[in-house]
Write a structure and sequence with these properties.
mainly alpha
């Protein structure tokens, strides 16, 4: 695979969706900055309560739970970015192949020395990896901004008020916590690969309303299967059980892991990795091959 062509293809995808991929994470980060500032302006700050809290924090700087408390806070900060980023991913996959057929730009792009395999690969990598990286980076920027403010606050408190919070800041293990969150990015992309592949297939196949093509066949299949299971007295629906089992993130062999403090940071990562199995490979390969086949053989009017 020509990496130069792949990079150029990904840049082309980012250029086409530049507005959404730039302003959505910026706006979300702005909300997280603006709302606390607005709250402080409207409600004021009880400085006495703040100093009492800081003195208390300085006294418990060796508490083993500080690291876990920070990690929970980091997850709370990253979660909205991951959720909004997932919505953007779904929109991207549903439209990435549909829009270029609708406006006939596919004829121009196919005239360039870029193979259909490269086009499919670049769109898949952009949606599955690059878009989450953008939203993870926005959340990390906020985390770095908060860390810089915390360092400045620690410096002012230690020099001007004789309150040392350096030990508390060091006990938070900030880099470790953010690093564990970033490590979930690639396993999450692989785990959701069947979903992304299905959305790409509906994007290349649908002549109108690709989102409905992505949703309605699944809903119809679940309804039909439920009716068949009910009237034939089958023990459980295969397709519905397959979807619930794959997307549940609750494998039995990891059910008790969340309660173990030493593994609490890695539990999400291990849950994601445990969900990746032969189903991921088979379903994704089949859907991506079908997408490629339609890309090659579907006639554009």
């Amino acid at each position: 695979m020509n990496t130069a062509i792949l990079k150029a293809s990904i840049k082309k995808e980012l250029w086409e969706f530049n507005g959404m991929l730039k302003w959505v994470p910026i706006s979300l980060a702005g909300v997280f900055i603006f709302i606390p500032l607005l709250s402080m302006i409207l409600n004021g700050i009880d400085m006495q309560a703040v100093f009492e809290g800081l003195k208390h924090a300085a006294q418990i700087e060796k508490n083993d739970h500080l690291s876990e408390m920070f990690f929970v806070g980091a997850i709370a900060l990253f979660s909205p970015f991951i959720a909004i980023g997932f919505i953007v991913q779904v929109y991207y996959f549903v439209t990435c192949l549909f829009d270029e057929r609708r406006d006939q730009s596919v004829m121009f792009w196919r005239s360039l020395p870029v193979s259909d395999e490269m086009t499919i690969a670049s769109k898949l990598l952009t949606g599955a990896v690059v878009i989450p990286v953008i939203f993870f980076a926005a959340a990390t920027f906020l985390m770095v901004l908060m860390l810089v403010l915390a360092i400045v606050a620690c410096l002012i408190l230690s020099v001007g008020f004789d309150i040392s919070l350096w030990g508390t800041l060091a006990s938070a293990n900030i880099l470790s916590g953010v690093g564990y969150i970033w490590l979930t990015l690639l396993p999450m992309a692989i785990w959701l690969l069947p979903l992304y592949s299905w959305l790409m297939l509906t994007s290349i196949y649908a002549n109108k309303a690709p989102f409905l093509w992505a949703v309605l066949p699944i809903v119809a299949l679940l309804v039909i299967e439920t009716i068949v299971v009910h009237y034939l007295n089958i023990s459980q629906p295969f397709f519905g059980h397959f979807l619930m089992d794959y997307f549940s993130l609750t494998p039995d062999n990891l059910a008790g892991m969340a309660g173990e403090q030493e593994k609490s940071r890695s539990v999400a990562l291990e849950l994601l990795i445990a969900q990746i199995d032969y189903r991921t490979v088979l379903v994704s390969a089949g859907l991506l091959f079908t997408t490629y086949w339609f890309r090659v053989n579907k006639q554009e009017s």
